[in-house]
Every structure is written in C-alpha cells, then in structure tokens.
Design goal:
The complex is a heterodimer of chains A (about 775) and B (about 475).
Chain A lengths: L16 E4 L40 H7 L1 H19 L3 E8 L10 H9 L3 E9 L4 E5 L8 E7 L5 E10 L4 E5 L24 E7 L4 E6 L6 H7 L12 E5 L5 E5 L15 H6 L2 E3 H16 L2 E8 L20 E8 L4 E4 L5 H5 L1 E8 L2 E10 L6 E5 L21 E10 L2 E16 L5 E5 L8 E3 L5 E7 L3 H6 L13 E5 H9 L14 H4 L3 E2 L2 E5 L2 H11 L3 H5 L7 E6 L4 H4 L7 E7 L6 E2 L30 H9 L4 E8 L2 E8 L1 E2 L9 E4 L4 E5 L2 H6 L9 E6 L4 H4 L7 E5 L2 E2 L3 H12 L6 E8 L2 E8 L2
Chain B lengths: L1 E4 L3 E5 L25 H15 L3 E10 L6 E4 L2 E5 L5 E4 L1 H4 L2 E7 L5 E10 L4 E7 L23 E6 L7 E12 L10 E4 L11 E3 L5 E9 L6 E5 H14 L5 E2 L2 E4 L2 E2 L4 E2 L6 E6 L4 H5 L6 E5 L2 E2 L8 H9 L7 E7 L2 E7 L2 E2 L7 E4 L4 E5 L6 H6 L4 E6 L4 H5 L7 E5 L2 E2 L3 H13 L6 E8 L2 E8 L8
Antiparallel strand pairs in B: 1-2, 2-14, 3-4, 3-5, 3-7, 5-6, 6-9, 7-8, 8-9, 10-11, 10-13, 11-12, 12-15, 13-14, 14-15, 16-25, 17-20, 18-19, 20-21, 21-22, 21-23, 23-24, 26-27, 27-28, 28-29, 29-30, 29-31, 31-32
Classes of the chains: A alpha+beta (about 775), B alpha+beta (about 475).
Chain lengths: ~775, ~475
C-alpha cells in the first residue's frame, strides 16, 4: 500500500491530513515536517473553518479530551493512520466535463460555468464494487444528456474513464461505472453486525482542500461527527465539509459510508450500511431512458398545450412582458394537466393584468385546437383553470397519489415546456433535500435542484406527488408588497402536494380569486374609489393645518406628515360624500375587516400632484400628467370591490372612523365608453364624472368629449381638437357616445344630405362646424 | 406676442434695440405721385417719399416694468414710432410702450426727448405718446395718415424703423395683401401685409406709400425669415389715436357675442346663405344672453345696419360695429333663427379692462395678476373674480412651495378669500408686517380645475442672497 503523507497547511490545524496529488490535476504539496511528525487527533471542533462554528456548540467536551490528549494522542494517531490506509484505495475523485445539449444548458449555474470555461466539476467517489467497476458518488441530479465525459482518479493518481450508470432511489447517490478500474481488486469487507449508536463511529472521507483533496479522518466519540449528528433534533444538511467517505468502528471495521448532502443516521432514515447497498434499489440511466418513451406517452395524455392570445394593449398603455422565445408575441403557450375530462389546470402564476387581457383561449387536445374558457385563477397558488367547450381529454391526472417520500428519496419529475417553437417534455428525477419552515410555519420540501414552476412531481410508478407552483400571498399583494411575476426557478416555487390540491381542483369555485378574471378594456381600467382627490400631507402642511384649526391633532395623527392624505375634492354622489368626508379631511389609514393591521396611507415619493383622473384639459392644466394611478386609488383597487374596510380620518380636530364596503368607481375618462368615428377621424368618449368635475360642467350638460383626432381627416380639418366637447349635432343635443354613434352613422349614410352641423364647446365658448360626408 | 395664422405661419412682434437718426431737411410738402412709373421714376418716387417721412421717424426706447419672471423688474425695450402731429404726438405699438415707466425717444436729428404715454389700446396694439420738448412751443415734423381703404395690392410701400436697434432704416416692398385676416389678432381690424423687410425693432414704425403718407403702423413679422410683415391700417390708427387723445383709452362696448363667418375655409365649414353673420357663442351673463341671442342665430342687421359676415375678413368690421354700440340704451338685432326672423333688443355693456393688473409679492418671490375675462379666458372660466400667479422666480419661496407660475388661481391666503388684487395686497402687507408670526403662509389654490393647498415658507430672503 502506498501512501503519501503530508501535513496539512496550518489552516487546517486540527486534523492529520493525507493528501494525494495526482500530477495532472493537483500540485503536489511539499511536506513541511518529517513523516513521523505527530498527528494530532481531535474531533471536528478544533477545525478552523467558520462554517463549523455552529456545529462546535455541541462539542465543548472535546476540549477536555484535548487536555488529556497528549497521552492518548499516540494511539489515536496510529489508529487514524490505520483507518486512512484502509480507506484510501477505495476513495476516488470523479471529474465531469459538461456540454450543452441541443442548444440548452443545464439549469445549475455552476455547471453552465463549467461549460463556458471548459473545465470539469469535481466530486468524491467510493469504489463500492471494484469487480463491477462501480463508483458511488454524490448525486448532482443533472440530466445525463449534459455530460460530455467522466473521469475517475484513484488515490494513487491513476485515471480511468467512467460513464454514468444509475441512481439510487433511496439514497442520494449515483453510480458511475468503468470497464477499466485500475485500483484494488478486493471489495470492502463490510461489517454487517449490530452496532451501538451513538459514539464509536469514525469517518474517513475526502475533503476539498486548498490544493486538491485531503483524506480526512474524523474520530468519533462524544464529539465526533457521527455522534453529534445523532444529537440533532431536526434534519439538517451536511455542509460542504461533509465528506463522502467510509465509516469505521473502533475495530477499524468498515461499517458503511456517507454521501453528501447527508442528514442524521438516527432512525436509519436511509441506507448507509455497506450491506444495504446490495439491497438498495438502483435505477440505471439506461432503464430510465428506455422507459421514457412510454412514460411520456402516458403522461402526455393528460398534458395539454394551452394557447392564450392576449388582447392588444391600447395606445399609451403598458405592454405585457413575456419571457422566453415568444416574448414579443401576444400569443403565449402554457402547459397544463387535465384534472377532469374538460378541465385543465395551468400551474402558472400570472399577474392580474395578464389575466384581464386574456382574449382567446384554446387547448390542444387530441391533436386539435379546441376552444376553451377561463374558469378562474386560484387565490393561494399560481395556477389557473380552463374548461374546454366540449372536447375531452383522453386521460386525467391519476387520482391515486403518492405521499412525499422521505428526504433523500428520488422522485420523478415531468415538465412540459415550450421550446424551440414547439412542445418539449422533460422527464427526469430529483430528490427531497430537506424541509424548510416557511411562511405561516408550513413546511415545504426542498429539492436538490430547484424545480421550475409547472413541474409535475411523481413517484416512479407515475403516481402524482405534487405540483410545483409559485406561492401567492394575497395579503402581501393587497398591500402592494408582492413581487411581480417571479422567474421560473424562483425560491417562491413550492411543491404543492396532491392531497392539498385535490379539493381545490375538484371544487375550484371556492378557491378562486374573485379579482382575477378576463375583462374587456373598459373593465380592465375600472378602479375602486372612495370619491376623493387628495394631496399628500407634508410636514409643513401638517403644521399649517394645525395652526389654522388650533391644536396639534394633524401633526400628531399624521406623525408630522409621515402619513396622511388631505382631501382636496369630493366627487358628487361618491361614497366619501355620503359618509360626510369633505375637503380638508385628512385620511389616515384603512383597515380591512377581520385584519389586525391597518394599512397606513403613506403616499410614495413622487406621487405628489398625481390625480385620480387621467383627463387633462387641453392646454389648460399645468399639472403633471394627471396620472390616475395615485396611491390611494391603487390601494383601494387592490383591495377589491366588496371588501369591507374601516377608514380612519381626521375631520377638523376630531379623529373619526367609518366603515365602507368598497365599490367600483363609475367609469372615468380612461374607461369611458368610446366610439371611433372612422369617417370623421374622431374618437369621442362619454363625459364621465371626472371630466365634469375638472371642467366644472353641470351634470346636465349633454355631449361627448373629443379624445383623439386623426391628422388630416375631416375632424382635423374642422379644427376639432382633443378636449373639445361636442354638444349638438344638427340642432339636437348629443346625449352620449351611443347617441353620437347612431346619429353620425345615419348622417354618414345619407341622412340630412350627409351634413353634420356640430356644435363645439370649449372652456365656455361655443363654435359651430359643418362636416359633410360624400 | 405670438400669434398663429393658419397652419404654418407664425408672426411675431418686432421690438428691439434702436438706432441713431441722421439730419435732413424737414420740409414736408406733399407730392402727387404719378400712377405710371418707370425705373428712374420709381427711384425718384422712393426718394421723395422717404424724404417726407424720414424726419418724422422716432426711435422709441421705453423702460418697461415687467412682472413675468416672478419679480417686478425693469427691462429696456425698443421700437419705432412716427410723429403724427406738429405738437409731438407719436404713434407706436402697444407692445412697445405698454407698462412703461419711462420713455425716451430719439428723433431724426439726434434729439433725445422723453415722452409721456398718453394711452394704449391692446386690442389693436397701438399706443400714443407725446414728446416732451424743452420748450413747449417746439413744433415737430409730422407724417400724415392716408386712407388705408385705398391701399391696393401690388403698390410699392416702404417700412421705416429701427430693426435690431440699428440706425433708422428703410426697407422696400409691395403690398402683399390689403385686407389680411389673422386668426388671433383681427378682433377689430384687418392687416396690411407687405414684403418690406420687418424685423424686431421695426414695431411701431410707419409703413408708407409712394406719396409719403402713412398707410400703416408696422406691428408683426414672420418668424421664419420670410418677407411677411403686417401693419395696422391707418384708418384703424386714426380712430384709435383720436380716442386715445380724447379719453386716454379706447372705449368699446361689449355684447358677449362670438361670431363666425358663413364660409369658413379654415375649418372647411360652409353654411347656407349670403347675408348675415353667425353667432358662434354667447357668453353666460352677457348682454347678448340677456337679449336672448343664441348659438346658431344668424344676425342680419344691427341697429339698422346690415351685417354681412360671409368670410372671416368681414368679421372685424362687424365687431367694430358691435364695439361702438351705445351702452345706455338698447339697439335692435334683426336675426333669423332656424329660418324664422326675429328682432331682439340688446343693451351693450362696457368692455372694460382687457388685461388684469399686476402685483409683485416680493418676499414670496412671485407676481400675481387679476383674472381678466378677455386676457385670461381659461382662468376666467373657473373663477370670475380672482387673482392668479403669473410668475415665480427661481430660486424663490413660491417656487419651493410648489407654485409653477403658470396659472395657479389663488383662492385663499391664510384662510381668507382672495377676490381682487387689493385683497392679496392687503393680506401680504399684514403678514409681512407681523414679525411675530411663523414665516409660513397657507394657500388654497386651484390648478387645472382642482383645488389644492400649498404652504409657502418665506423665512429665506432671496433678495438678499
């Protein structure tokens, strides 16, 4: 048995380290001390690594050992050496060179970097079956199609080729196989007998060091790593220092192995004894590939492409942003699963405005595009449901589910996606890496590789375990704190268990978000209102208002201008008016019924001067663009109509509170009924309440307002400009847009000789124009 | 003063630094010009005309009190003028002489004299000055006003003045149009358009014919370097000057009517009929409304005089007629409403001021103006009696408070209603006199039809900085 002994660099103070340095990959470390330098044996507590700081908390007793250490050192050192010698023939490193496949990268950033830099990633390996040429290694979970080549290097520096062979179902390890194993012939002589936990376990593994890899021996005992992990109450992940390696007992018998990311051995959560390996279920990559076609066909029967055509945004409106290769198109493709013959769930989270702009939905079923309608979007997770008009899916999601397996178990993942102009299904596997306690104290399983939203997680028999979807937090969304559309592999993707979803899918109506539904342009722009225009309370204004009213209630309640919106105008007939809110009232906060925390009205920076209505009279106003997205309006609209709220405000010097049930605002300039009179080149809108307020028009003032004039057309020639009100046609008042349309169409069809005498009103002055139609 | 004519043209006021006149003979004999000219004749004709009028040309240099930048400041402006009487009355433009605190004139023979502002008429952009010679008996060479109704397109004309403040200059052109209607500037008068070069500084100077008579006062030019100049016709000048001499102002009547022609080429609107003029608008509360006139009525005669508003060019005459109606009794308007003839009795009212007064609120770094129905129709629409912010200075207290100086109407100051300039002047004085109060004022304003509150902090004295 050859061995190279070097001492570690002072950084790794504590442990004796045996490093080997196969010439091609690592530089050979020179020894700073003679070979027989005493090897200090300690538990991991003495290691200088900061990552160990937490772990060291439970290991104070080690120090006592240290004090007694001198005497025991010699024995320990010898023992450690013996263990290292036993283990090293079976310890190898595995270097994988990666590649793109069909223009795709694997998901992991590290791997992508390796592809770009043309370097290999390193992993640790254990020769568990020299005869078969099997090397056990940690499972990085990447699709084998991205593997260019794999190479193994023994502790003696001998290289040999490897190929990915298979993955274990119940432990986080893969097997690489070689035909040219150059190392030791005899397999490890595993000890299968009973052992007493904790204590008495020793670990020999490979650890990345500065210049390469070190064989690190960690002795057990009270402070040993194995013992310590059994003290843990929760399942934690092993850190990067956790080495792949062998576990020996006090008699230097190999008991088993460890594979990162490892958790505790308590309760025998997964196989780790040497003997277990033979019994462990290994799925070869070949078998997996062979089963792929059949599986894809089977799953494909309940998986459908849902094509959504979005409504074109109007001029001056926000375009929707899409990702992926279709990002500039208004036609987007999603993939969903049939939960019933006609109902398909699409596990995608879309912001409200996207759903509002759904124009046409079709589902590809049985090779045909069939029309479908939107049923609803779920309140608590990013998913929506559509229903076909009559076509039925050949299969539905299997109703027999599987439970989320234990950690480190493999699950099968199925992800239909749109790629390269068509549908691509990815079938692979993943592993539960652990659980995280999250929002509302729920526990969600984490996965070795983050799963993109839309992934169906199943067991290897094809029974669904869960769906990966983006979590929605309606409360946060209401407050406006929610993030916008998350990217695919966001942390907010969670695997929702089928058990939890069954109810929601079977009776979805109770689980839908009532605020998310397709609307037409006018409804999309509809806002929820109180019926006020406001200005933010600044510290100066707060002071001034207090001076005027006497006292200090304004400054106190607004915290010197930190919160508060001062009402400047109350619209007639509005909820505010009915509640007695008048100009000068300072709105303070809104509390949703049933919620503890009120939402303080703190207008954001830059909302100064923004108005509710987008209407701005031509040439008149010096205001900013009259943005209708002022803070209060946005907030109320997010809360949604029908929401019961209590609004606290300051009226004079009195603080008051009133209950409201939020309601839709009447149509305003942006959502007003409109008509584009093509023949005149004129777009007219109804005189909505906000226009009437800004222009100080009577409620009885008839007419429609010019919103847009096409250059060069008849209306432009007649010098009609936006903001002008058209009050009469041929001597009779214009009631509204509908009336305008009807009468203009009559005239354009020949009535009155094709002559329209239009009376215009602007800022109190009238004018008449005559437009004649051929 | 910018004005819009038609689609592409923008005329602008010409008013700039002056020049130094030269000495010539001041003999003002009339010369009859022959109607047929040869080249040498033309040269001689020009010479003679010039000789007649050059001595009457004045370089006018007023010092104006300007309120537009948020502070009352004096600006030196200059233009031209022409002496029209031996006792030294000078005609120039309103936009040259308005709001002048001092006017200096340089005459043809380099005499520099101060002049008094006798009166101005904003509607026709004319002003009357009177020279103040050392000896009151001094007589001046003067020009005569011709009958501008006899101006004919194609005739030679000359413009005299001080373009860009350069020494008195003369330019030659022909009459391009004898009756030009300019959309925003033809309330009571049409224009004489010529291609004699007009530049800033020419404002107020005379446009003369080959007889050496003044046929117009040069007022507007074209911004785009074209040879298009516009002069107020001498007949208008004559009327206005007489009024200014007699009353210091031009008293006009107001009916509250807005008219539109039967044939409007600009908006491509052609209505039936050959006679009469259309009522486009009736101001609320106006004499026309009280008389019962309505939009769409066809006015056939006013006080017995037939009115014909076939084209835009006809409107100034009708408006002038309306502007001269008596205000102490009613006159008959014969109209046609939807084909039915009717007669309505209308009593016109005084037009009154056509521009609000200015006030500087020094410590607040802003200037305000009273809202005037004619000058500020869009503000008047919202507030009939009020005050608005016409300018704020940067840096300044008003600017910091959020005033933009483009038309905020001040509704209340410190809780007190503001209706007139006196109201705000009083409050300003009271506040500034109160040394114990916090240096902060609350304003209630209206902007774009909507009310709001602004807080002005005047602790900083920007004047001192």
């Amino acid at each position: 048995m050859n061995r190279w002994i070097t001492t570690t660099v002072a950084l790794l103070l504590a442990l004796a380290a045996f490093a080997w340095a196969p010439p091609r990959v690592w530089a050979q470390a020179e020894t700073a001390a003679p070979a027989d330098k005493p090897i200090k044996a300690v538990g991991a507590a003495d290691r200088a690594s900061p990552a160990d700081a937490d772990r060291n908390k439970g290991a104070e007793e080690v120090d006592e050992d240290e004090e007694n250490g001198e005497d025991e050192c010699e024995d320990d050192r010898e023992f450690m050496q013996e263990l290292a010698d036993l283990a090293s023939p079976y310890l190898v490193t595995v270097a994988t060179l990666w590649k793109e496949d069909k223009g795709e990268y694997p998901g992991d950033y590290e791997i992508r970097r390796s592809i770009d830099l043309k370097m290999s990633t390193q992993a640790m390996g254990l020769a568990i079956d020299p005869a078969k040429g099997w090397i056990l290694s940690e499972d990085n979970n990447h699709e084998t199609r991205f593997v260019e080549s794999v190479r193994g290097i023994t502790s003696e520096g001998k290289e040999f080729p490897l190929r990915p062979y298979g993955f274990y179902r119940d432990l986080p390890a893969v097997v690489y196989q070689t035909e040219a194993w150059p190392g030791v012939r005899e397999p490890l002589d595993w000890f299968d007998g009973d052992i007493a936990l904790p204590g008495g376990l020793h670990h020999v593994g490979l650890v990345r060091a500065r210049l390469g890899w070190d064989i690190v021996v960690a002795l057990g005992g009270a402070g040993g790593p194995m013992a310590r992990s059994t003290d843990r109450k929760t399942d934690d992940e092993w850190t990067a220092e956790a080495a792949l390696g062998l576990i020996f007992d006090d008699e230097a018998r190999p008991l088993g192995f460890t594979v990162p990311p490892l958790a505790s051995l308590v309760g025998n959560r997964f196989p780790w004894r040497g003997g277990d390996l033979a019994k462990a279920s290994l799925i070869t990559f070949d078998d997996f590939a062979n089963a792929k076609a059949e599986r894809l066909s089977r799953f494909g029967k309940f998986t459908h492409e849902v094509k959504i055509v979005y409504r074109q945004p109007e001029e001056g409106e926000d375009n929707l942003e899409f990702e992926g290769e279709d990002r500039t198109s208004l036609t987007q493709y999603y993939y969903g699963f049939a939960v019933s013959p006609r109902r398909v769930v699409v596990p995608v989270r879309l912001d409200k405005i996207y759903i509002q702009r759904f124009k046409r939905i079709t589902v590809r079923m049985n090779d045909q595009e069939v029309p479908a309608k939107f049923l609803g979007a779920f309140l608590n997770f990013g998913c929506f449901m559509v229903e076909t008009d009559g076509a039925e899916s050949p299969a539905v999601l299997p109703s027999e589910w599987a439970q989320v397996p234990d950690i480190q178990r493999a699950v099968m993942t199925y992800l239909p996606e749109r790629k390269f102009g068509g549908r691509r299904d990815t079938l692979w596997y993943n592993r539960i890496s652990g659980y995280k306690r999250e929002y509302k104290d729920e526990q969600w399983p984490g996965y070795t590789n983050p799963l993109p939203r839309g992934t169906l997680v199943m067991d290897f028999d094809g029974r669904p375990i869960g769906l990966a979807m983006i979590e929605r937090r309606p409360e946060e969304e209401k407050k406006g704190n929610a993030r916008r559309i998350s990217r695919d592999r966001d942390e907010s993707v969670k695997i929702y268990r089928m058990a939890k979803l069954a109810d929601a899918f079977a009776s979805p109506e109770a689980h839908f978000d009532p605020n998310l539904r397709p609307t037409d342009e006018r409804e999309e722009k509809r806002l929820v209102w109180l019926g006020v225009e406001t200005q933010p309370v600044t510290p100066e204004l707060a002071e001034m208002l207090d001076e005027m009213a006497g006292g200090d209630s304004v400054q106190k309640l607004t915290r010197r201008g930190e919160v508060g919106l001062r009402v400047t105008h109350v619209y007639t007939g509005s909820p505010a008016e009915k509640a007695g809110i008048r100009p000068g009232t300072v709105l303070l906060e809104i509390r949703e019924q049933g919620k503890n925390d009120p939402i303080e009205l703190k207008p954001l920076e830059g909302s100064y001067g923004y108005r509710f209505s987008r209407f701005r009279s031509y040439g008149g106003s010096s205001d900013s663009d009259g943005n209708r997205s002022n803070y209060l309006t946005k907030l109320l609209t997010r809360l949604g109509p029908g929401t019961k709220v209590a609004i606290a405000y300051l009226d004079g010097t009195e603080k008051k509170s009133q209950d409201f049930i939020l309601e839709w605002a009447p149509y305003d300039y942006s959502s007003a009924a409109k008509f584009k009179d093509e023949k005149s080149g004129l777009t007219v809108k109804d005189l909505t309440y906000d226009i009437r307020a800004i222009l100080h028009l009577d409620a009885s003032q008839p007419g429609v307002i010019c919103a847009k004039v096409e250059p060069g057309e008849k209306a432009a020639v007649a010098q009609i400009h936006p903001s002008v009100i058209l009050t009469e046609i041929n001597g009779r008042p214009i009631a509204n847009v509908e009336d305008y349309q009807k009468r203009m169409e009559e005239i354009q069809g020949g009535a009155n000789g094709g002559v329209a005498d239009i009376r215009l009103l602007w800022m109190g002055k009238n004018r008449m124009v005559r437009i004649t139609f051929p | 003063m910018n004005c819009r004519l038609g689609m592409a043209l923008t005329a602008t006021v010409l008013c700039l630094a002056g020049c130094t006149p030269q000495t010539t003979d001041t003999d003002a004999a009339r010369i009859d010009a022959p109607s047929q000219y040869t080249g040498a004749d033309i040269q001689a004709m020009i010479e003679r005309a010039k000789e007649k009028v050059f001595p009457t040309l004045v370089y006018v240099k007023p010092i104006r009190e300007d309120y537009s930048e948020g502070k009352k400041q004096r600006v030196v402006v200059s233009g031209s003028g022409v002496i029209i009487s031996p006792d030294g009355y000078v005609v120039t433009n309103n936009h040259v002489a308005e709001k002048a605190v001092e006017i200096r004139c340089v005459l043809f023979d380099n005499t520099m004299l101060k002049a008094d502002l006798i009166g101005t008429d904003k509607d026709t952009d004319l002003a009357l000055l009177k020279l103040k010679p050392e000896t009151p008996e001094t007589t001046f060479p003067y020009a005569t006003l011709a009958d501008s109704d006899h101006v004919v397109e194609g005739r030679f004309v000359m413009a005299l003045g001080s373009p860009w403040g350069l020494k008195r200059s003369i330019s030659l052109g022909i009459v391009s149009s004898a009756e030009r209607f300019l959309d925003e500037d033809s309330e009571y008068s049409l224009w004489i358009q010529s291609d004699a070069a007009l530049n800033p500084g020419n404002s107020g100077g005379p446009l003369i014919n080959t007889d050496g008579e003044v046929i117009g006062i040069n007022t507007l030019g074209s911004m785009y370097g074209g040879d298009m100049g516009f002069s107020v016709p001498s007949n208008t000048v004559r009327y206005v000057i007489d009024e200014l001499k007699a009353h210091g102002e031009v008293k006009r009547s107001w009916t509250g009517l807005r008219l539109q022609p039967l044939r409007d080429f600009d908006s491509d609107s052609f209505f039936e009929g050959e006679r009469g003029v259309l009522v486009a608008s009736v101001d609320p509360g106006s004499p026309a409304e009280k008389a019962g006139l309505a939009v769409g009525d066809l006015i056939l005669s006013v006080n017995g005089d037939a009115v014909d508003g076939l084209y835009s060019e006809n409107l100034p005459r009708i408006r002038t007629l309306l502007g001269r109606l008596p205000t102490d009794r009613s006159v008959d308007f014969a109209i046609e409403r939807a084909g039915t003839p009717m007669t309505l009795a209308l009593t016109a009212s005084q037009k009154g001021l056509v521009e609000g007064e200015d006030l500087e609120l020094k410590r607040w770094n802003m200037t305000v103006k009273s809202i005037n129905e004619h000058a500020d129709p869009q503000l008047y629409y919202y507030v009939k009696q009020g005050v608005y912010v016409q300018g704020v200075s940067y840096p300044g207290n008003a600017a910091m408070a959020g005033f933009s100086g483009s038309g905020e109407i001040i509704l209340k100051v410190d809780g007190k209603e503001i209706k007139t300039l006196d109201d705000i002047r009083k409050i300003y004085d009271e506040i500034m006199a109160d040394t114990h109060r916090k240096k902060r004022v609350g304003f209630e304003i209206m902007r774009g039809g909507m009310p709001s509150m602004l807080v002005l902090d005047y602790a900083r004295d920007y004047d001192k900085e």
